[in-house]
Write a structure and sequence with these properties.
Biased composition (Pro residues): 699-711
Pathway: Protein modification; protein ubiquitination
Organism: Gonium pectorale
CATH superfamily of the domain at 510-688: Potassium Channel Kv1.1, Chain A
Low-confidence stretches: 499-511, 697-740
Helix content: 55-70%
Oligomer: single chain
ARM repeats: 164-206, 206-248, 290-332, 331-373
Largest sheet: 3 strands, mixed
CATH architecture of the domain at 510-688: 2-Layer Sandwich
Mean pLDDT: 86
Radius of gyration: 43 Å
Biased composition (Low complexity): 728-740
Structural class: mainly alpha
Number of helices: 40
CATH topology of the domain at 510-688: Potassium Channel Kv1.1, Chain A
Shape: elongated
Strand order of the largest sheet: 2-1-3
């Protein structure tokens, strides 16, 4: 039948002058119309044809019909009278139309609630041992209709209460028919949602004891709806929450975590999260009564909503210090860390809040480190979708740091911090390489600065990070984490290492330093030696040269031919480079520019001018780029510049992503890791030899100690060993000093 035809038949039931309308025909038409209303595409047509204005009066007319005819001889197949069958279909129609919010108010204003509440009240509980025939179906459909009408409609929720609809719904909770129980629970659940007055009436009508018993129902639909009602009753209502707990709801709710019904599991987890905010004692009881293992299992289930509610409950429970250790020991930490990396922002936030709680207990520190919690928190912090989640993760990181560096350094906090630090350092002894690595990375980030030297240098903890950095077998993520940890560590160590010259001072060296001043650079006044550079004559003074390096001392006071020469050829150094080198010899200072820095480094290495070499290393390091860092490192190796090599490694750590990307292919990756393996000793030597700052400031060092061996000034090659003093070697022809 079409909607209009069905409605016309129903309309005849209102206008018929026959003493007894054809209820069979009315019931048939109502059933057909209900079938059409199940299909969304017909609802608007049904309403436009005037269904509401027909169905509601027909439903309300049922009261008069019932009074006039106490018993209808025509009995339906279900055992109900035709009048009851008709009323059931009419309620069903109204419930289906109310699914669309725009028709809720229209139905209520037509007086539907009067008829629906009447039908609820007419259902009489006659037995508790078996389902009773008759009006159970009508009451169920009436409750369902109220549920749909009141859904997210505050006005209709209030009208139901004002028309005394809550007491019969509470009474229906004790119906033998589980379908009626489900329907009554569903209606109460909707009416209680964010409506304090309705909550109070439901509680005052004595619903709580029955609802708690329904939590133990064998029917999953019943206990799902019952736990939902209780959840809405306690939401934002502390007094109701306490009363529910007093009535003994805790254990039945915990038991539902192990239900075969996922919906009941989800709702019970949500309700436990709400219970956990009642007081500290309730938090402890929830854990003591066995909730945590079930909640942890739920974290691993495929259903996202189950994970979300389990994480929500654990987050609330984790705000209790004793619960925190229990949750970790029962396996809650790994799945919570997994959820933090979920694509669902609710999962992320609930997991973040739970982890924040777990980080409060110092006993959890070793487990957090073993699972790589710090690295995963740092990694996901900027990827989270909601700012509140990002803030929560940052607070968790801060909490971990405060465990080792308490803001309030009283005796108890300091003792706890010492224990936490010892437990982390102990993990460096783990036989599992991954645990060692995570411990080292976490210590680099969290350990007090004054403890870093003891952990990483004295006890060689830094070797774990360096080995990790050089290992091509570790994952890209782990490799990056090691680079980040080393970068943090070196900067922290830099602030606590003594600022001393990194090269050993030769006894008596400082007394021989002679700086004639810039005015004597290439000045013929009192000059007693000259150099031929690119066809030009450069005037110099032996006393300044002798005091500057062992190379010049060997040249002019040893057994080389330059000892008595007036002029020396310099065939392998350009004029501006040589002039800059002499300026340093005469002043002990030089502003090294990038255009000559590499050549000047080579010259300083050739003439053993270690102070100048340091300045060159700093200047070159200041101009490092992603593209040049590896080539620069090879240059540092060629000219014995370990500090430049160390700075190349630090640059590669600081610009990890950009540098790694250049070599992120099978062809170039071996070269990348080979360079890292050769860079690492530069950093190790600097740290283990008790040198000065790791990140050079660029200031010139004190007069450097001379190194053994002197170069051949004109050779352009490696330095030659100086002749022993007093050999009396004669001077020959040419630029290079020669042995006799």
């Amino acid at each position: 039948m079409k909607p209009a035809s069905c409605i016309d038949v129903l309309r005849s039931g209102l206008t018929s002058t026959y003493p007894t309308p054809d209820k069979a025909a009315l019931r048939k038409a109502a059933h057909s119309l209900a079938e059409l209303c199940k299909q969304d595409e017909y609802i608007d047509e049904v309403v436009s044809e005037g269904a509401i204005e027909v169905v509601v009066p027909l439903l309300n007319a049922g009261a008069a019909a019932a009074r006039e005819q106490q018993h209808d001889d025509a009995i339906g197949a279900s055992g109900a009278t035709l009048q009851e069958e008709l009323e059931k279909e009419l309620c069903f129609i109204l419930g289906l139309l109310a699914v669309k919010p725009e028709y809720q108010t229209r139905i209520a204003q037509s007086g539907a609630l009067t008829g629906l509440v009447r039908l609820l009240k007419e259902h009489k509980l006659c037995t508790i041992t078996k389902p009773q025939p008759g009006s159970g179906g009508v009451a169920r459909r009436a409750a369902d209709a109220i549920t749909n009408l009141a859904h997210e409609n505050v006005s209709i929720k209030n009208q139901v209460r004002e028309q005394d609809g809550i007491p019969p719904l509470v009474a229906l909770l004790e119906a033998m028919d589980v379908k009626v129980q489900r329907a009554a629970c569903g209606a109460l659940r909707t009416l209680a949602f964010k409506n304090e007055q309705n909550k109070n009436v439901i509680v005052e009508q004595g619903a709580l004891p029955t609802l708690i018993q329904l939590l133990r129902s064998e029917d999953s639909g019943v206990h799902y709806e019952a736990v939902g009602v209780i959840g809405n009753l306690v939401h934002s209502s502390q007094h109701v929450k306490l009363k529910v707990l007093e009535e003994g709801a805790l254990q039945p709710v915990i038991n539902l975590l192990n239900s075969d019904c996922p919906d009941s599991q989800r709702e019970s987890a949500l309700l436990l999260g709400q219970f956990a905010t009642a007081d500290a004692d309730t938090k402890a009881k929830i854990v003591q009564r066995g909730a945590v293992p079930a909640l942890v299992r739920m974290l691993a289930m495929p259903d996202v909503s189950l994970k979300e509610m389990a994480a929500f409950a654990l987050g609330r429970l984790a705000q209790n210090v004793d619960n925190q250790a229990g949750i970790v020991q029962l396996g809650g930490l790994p799945p919570l860390l997994e959820l933090l990396e979920s694509k669902h922002y609710n999962l992320q936030h609930n997991a973040a809040f739970a982890l924040y709680g777990l980080a409060e207990n110092e006993d959890n520190i070793p487990d957090l480190i073993r699972e790589g919690a710090l690295q995963r928190l740092e990694d996901c912090k900027e990827k989270l979708q909601v700012q509140a989640s990002k803030d929560c993760v940052q607070k968790t990181i801060n909490r971990l740091e405060q465990k080792l560096k308490p803001d309030n350094p009283n005796a108890a906090n300091l003792a706890a911090a010492k224990r936490a630090l010892c437990s982390m350092v102990f993990l460096l002894r783990s036989s599992t390489k991954q645990v060692q690595q995570r411990a080292a990375m976490s210590l680099a980030r969290l350990a007090p600065d004054e403890q870093l030297k003891s952990i990483f240098i004295d006890k060689r903890g830094i070797d774990v990070l360096l080995d990790m950095l050089m290992d091509p077998a570790v994952s890209h993520r782990s490799h990056k984490e090691a680079a980040t940890a080393l970068l943090q560590l070196t900067k922290k160590l830099d602030a606590h290492l003594p600022v001393v010259d990194q090269l050993p001072q030769q006894p008596g060296r400082a007394e021989r330093s002679v700086y004639l001043g810039a005015e004597y650079v290439n000045n013929p006044t009192l000059a007693d030696i000259s150099f031929n550079v690119e066809g030009r004559r450069f005037f110099a003074h032996r006393i300044a040269l002798l005091a500057s390096s062992e190379a010049f001392r060997a040249m002019f006071s040893g057994g080389y031919r330059e000892k008595d020469a007036d002029s020396v050829d310099i065939p392998n150094i350009r004029w501006p480079v040589f002039e800059a080198m002499m300026r340093f010899v005469y002043t002990g200072q030089l502003d090294v520019t990038q255009d000559i820095a590499f050549e000047l480094l080579q010259a300083s290495d050739q003439y053993l001018l270690e102070g100048l070499k340091r300045l060159c290393e700093n200047a070159i390091a200041g101009g490092l780029t992603t593209e040049s860092v590896m080539a620069t490192f090879e240059y540092s190796e060629q000219f014995s510049a370990p500090q430049l090599g160390r700075r190349c490694l630090l640059y590669a750590l600081e610009h990890y992503d950009e540098v790694f990307k250049l070599y992120d292919n099978p062809k170039d990756r071996p070269f990348y890791f080979d360079c890292l393996r050769r860079m690492v000793p530069c950093l190790k030597d600097s740290l283990y030899c008790g040198g000065g700052p790791i990140w050079d400031s660029g200031a010139p060092p004190p007069p450097p100690a001379p190194a053994p061996g002197a170069p051949s000034p004109g050779s352009g090659g490696p330095a030659a060993a100086p002749a022993p003093p007093g050999t009396g070697a004669p001077v020959g022809e040419g630029a290079a000093p020669r042995r006799p």
